[in-house]
Amino acid sequence: MQKLTLSYLNEDDRAYGLAGMAISLAALDxxxxxxxxxLDADGPMVTFSHLYYYSGSxxxxxxxxxxxxxxxxYLTSAMVVSNVLSRSLVRLHKEVPEEITSKIRSVIADExxxxxxxxxxxIDALFNKxxxxxxxxxxxxxxxxxxxxxARTLSRRRTLSGNELLDELRILQIV
Length: 175
What we know:
The chain is mostly helical. It has helices at about 10-25, 60-90, 100-115, 120-140, 145-155, 160-170, and strands at about 35-40, 45-50, 160. A three-stranded antiparallel beta sheet has the order 2-1-3.
């Protein structure tokens, strides 16, 4: 599987990326799957709860297991897309370069094939759904001040628990 590395220009860029990921999880009603977020993390900035790392069981139907894998692929895809959209559309006020969008789509396609055995039409549908729904959020200029404030909050606080994350997003009326 190909690994996508989202390099950051600076600390501010990193905060906007994390803000984008958190907002996408809130929009998809998946904050219950987050234990914490941290700008200072050496690895992934989002730590997930056991709900995200669902493992199959012989007592659970294969369809249920597959649906959970597909949902997690959608969440992960939304986080990656939102990371880049927040940094480009909100922070820099520029469109995401096509090269980056193409790389993200390629990684999502590889993961969709590997983890869920999706065919190209299903991958296209998942990617288009992700792009469309996350673009609606990050292209909305009325949300930009709240996203800016949330990125500043992340920069100041550095680490938030899942509950603190939800509280901050509610204060800013993002969720």
